[in-house]
Amino acid sequence: IVANATAKLSKLKNNQPPPTTEIKIETKRKLTSGEIKMCQLVFKDAVDYSKVWIHIGGYLHSATGNAMSPAGEIYLPKKAYDRNPDFSLAPGEDRHWFIHEMTHIWQFQLGTPNAWYGLKQLCKGGYTSLVDSADSGADELKAYDTDILGRDAGKKFNEFNFEQQGRLVEFWFDACYLQEVRPGRLHHQRSLKLLGHIERILRDFILNPYDKSLLPRS
Ligand SMILES: [Zn+2]
Q: What confidence category does residue 109 fall into, taking pLDDT thresholds of 50, 70 and 90?
């Protein structure tokens, strides 16, 4: 926009034609084939990948550095968008982060009101209060906090809130598929430690991600 305005100004000033170089700024993209393959390891074809856009933008996450996926599309902070032209080639952190966001896409496409649940979390302080999380460690946002060996023992997948579902799926994905991607990562180590328990919670989801009864209720 700035480049275009400057060109127009210079045309007005000097009565010269504007430079012909166009600056194209991409603000959204579709999934790459590598990303789709990676997602199919988790969601099979329960997600219509052709409908998914990844954008730069939003407002909440530009402050927090988080992504947002309220309505079937992913909104990333600009830095994260720029460094990830293909999440299937990204460092471990960004890969499991992407799978977390894709869990929201799965939820949304199967009928979860993600924006409404997100708003309710926001009002409850889920995105602003930090807790010591048994599963994710210190300084975890309350919305994502799980304690699957303690408070959450025996819970079914659909009894976790929509953010906790994203966490569980990203842990499972990290443990199963990112063993070669800097395995010393703390997130990977936590994932491995929890794998047996998470697999039990995710069993029905892994077998049949088409099942709408697995969707979160909050
Ligand atoms: Zn999330």
A: very high
